[in-house]
Amino acid sequence: MPEEKSETAVVDNVVLVGGCHLSVPRLEENKRPPPAGSAPSVVVEAVRHSRLITVRDDSALSIVFRLLRYFAAADVERWLCELLALVRASPDSAEVMMECPDWQPCLFQVISGILEVVSAQEVVDVALTVGEDEKEEGAAGLATPLLDRDAGDDPDRKPCEKKGAQASPAVGTNTTNCFSLAMKLYTNLLAHSTRLGGRDATSALQVAASLQRTCVNGREVLTILVTHLLAELVDRGTLPPDLAATAPSPAGSSREVNHALKRSARLVNAAVLRQDAVPTPLDEAGANRIWQTLRYLTALVVALQHRHGLGVAETLDYRSAAAGGSEGLAGIRLGDGNLPGIPSPVGTAGNVACATAAAQLLTLTDAFIFVDSMLVTPGSVSRDYVLRLFRSADDLLGDTQGTLLSGLIRLSVLLLASLEPCSAKFLQCAGRLRCFVGWLLALIRETTGLAAPDGAGAAPYDALTERDDRLLLATILHVHRALERCGRILALFEGLEGGYSDLFCSPEDMTKHRRRVLRAGHELREIVGAVHRDRGELLRVSLSNRAYAALVRGLERSGHAAERGGNAGARKEAALRSFLASSWVQGYVNVDFVA
Questions:
Q1: CA 382, CA 372: separation in Å to the nearest integer?
Q2: How many of the other CB atoms lie within 10 Å of CB of 474?
């Protein structure tokens, strides 16, 4: 029976419901490829034809994924477009692709190969530039026939124009597009598995983490991939869209920041808190799976931080941190809003990528840790709920909660050591770290059986508190360094005397950044005061006698300055300025590492 003529090349399959097949008469009419941009591809046409069309079998997908690395860049770009269109058209297609065992290794190798091409291109650029520099520094009058015969040599070229950059071709557009498409496809599939939660999510993340050991540039690929995954979860939430849509929204939330993420967190927290006021399709086991995924993501980002040499101890090397500066004012400059994934494999330093991932993860966990006002009255059960999340064992959330709180503190410390003190991200980090340190102190009191912070506490570095005490001490050292940087930035602002145009757009812009530094400094001062009140003995035995005496003296003078007249804001600023001027903040800024 001859097949009826169809207007499209892809038609519904009447035998396999939900599938599709090619229309032979339509394909016969389109043997010649159309001009670029004049007609949609077969898969895009299929997606437009029916939203029910999905991938039904992964047998051919395995072959496609394995051949991607051997195709030309233009063919890789086309195949990635087709696969990405299918994934975005139907969640069923994503599930079928994830059942294919080759999708992660093959996509990881494609991205790794692109980074290798870019790295090789950068090496060529540097070599040609160095060769040009050596030529200019050579003795005048020496003949250089090889360079003189270069057709691109321009006698009128200015000295500042490097011929090496002109002789080296740039990375092609197809290569850049392939990187972007491969990263989007990988991110969409990985985010889909992450939203399932539990073992499926952790298994997919474990495969991605293991591939960085076997592929070239594996660490860089995994870091960039994590930034894209976290950006996807922050923008679209941690639950499947159909499930997150059932979450109620507060009045006037149409312009709520991170609306999808907060809806997901609202459902998870309602299931954990057993709040009848917010109906949720999640049960307690489903909420636990989401928390398991968040804990694993935190551990993954912390591990990446250590792989890049940016651990808590490594970032205490202030001279090394200063050598890795960026375009920010005494630190890395990140955007004020949600951070996208690393957009390009070219020119991205490891410390910037790690800082981006840390800021993204802290934004992701904020919605879950700081409970929504729709669920609880502010200050009622929020603290108990958070401590339940951070305990090493809990009846509801499982036997082991991992090191979620310590991981969040480590990432906050990284941002504290890396970001510019006048940025919004630095201010958010300081306020968040103050909460984390307060919860850690509460857990220490709970562990040691103390009912109130009386200043005595358990002995430092005993069997129960050794790990937490070490983390507290490292946090105090980083806070000390951050306070010293805040003091230098404030002195810089106040010494400009109208010369704001070099650093800021207007006087109002400079005032805004100055206020951020003051607010961040106040949060850091409160951290030092809280640790001194609860674990003063820890600071006494860990710091030198002179440093501890200077710390106590600085806190006392700061307290006296806060008792003077004026409004609350003036008293806070006076207390902070007194503490910034203390010998403890201004001194002891060098750390020597003993091998």
A1: 9
A2: 18
Q: If you write DSSP's letter for every residue of 515-570 in order, what string do you get?
A: HHHHHHHHHHHHHHHHHHHHSHHHHHHHS-HHHHHHHHHHHHHHHHHHTSSS-HHH
Predicted confidence at residue 288, as pLDDT, reads 83
Q: Nearest to residue 530, comparing CAs of 553, 555, 566, 508?
A: 555
Whether the pLDDT of residue 431 is over 90: the answer is yes
Own/partner pairs for 359-363, CB < 8 Å, 24+ apart?
A: 359/334, 359/415, 359/425, 359/429, 360/227, 360/230, 360/231, 360/234, 361/230, 361/297, 361/298, 361/301, 361/411, 362/408, 362/411, 362/412, 362/415, 362/428, 362/429, 362/432, 363/234, 363/258, 363/338, 363/339
Rg (CA), the chain: 29
Residues making up the chain, counted from first to last: 595
Q: 568-580 vs 507-534: helix axis angle to the nearest 10?
A: 70
The string of pLDDT tens digits covering residues 270-295 is 887 766 555 667 777 888 888 889 98
Average pLDDT of the chain, as a whole number:
76
Q: Which two tokens stand for residue 320?
A: 């090394």
DSSP 394: B
Whether the pTM exceeds 0.90: the reply is no
Q: Is 489 exposed, middle or buried (0-12, 13-18, 19+ CB in 10 A)?
A: buried
Rounded to whole angstroms, the Cα distance separating 117 from 273 reads 51
Could you report the per-residue pLDDT of 493-517, keeping only the tens digit for each? 887 655 555 677 777 888 888 899 9
**Maximum alpha-carbon separation in the chain:** 97
Confidence of residue 128 (pLDDT cuts 50, 70, 90): very low
Please indicate whether residue 457 or residue 485 has the higher confidence score (pLDDT): 485
- List, in order, residues 6 or more apart from 463 with CB less than 8 Å away: none
Q: What CA–CA distance (Å, rounded) separates 285 from 65? A: 35
When comparing pLDDT for 249 and 417, which is higher?
Answer: 417
Predicted confidence at residue 161, as pLDDT, reads 37
- DSSP state letters, 328-371: SSSSB---SSPPPP---SSS--HHHHHHHHHHHHHHHHHHHHS-
DSSP codes of every residue in 224-281: HHHHHHHHHHHHH-SS-HHHHTTS---TT-TT-TTHHHHHHHHHHHHHHHT-TTS--S
Least confident of 70-74, 153-157, 586-590: 153-157
Instruction: Answer with the residue of higher pLDDT: 566 or 376.
Output: 566
151/133 Cα distance (integer angstroms)? 18
Cα 187 to chain centroid distance, Å, stands at: 14
DSSP state letter for 123? H
Task: List pLDDT tens digits, range 453-481.
Answer: 444 567 888 888 888 899 999 999 999 99
Compute how many other C-beta atoms are within 10 angstroms of the C-beta atom of residue 392. Answer: 12
Instruction: Specify the DSSP element, H or E, that contains 322.
Output: helix 318-323
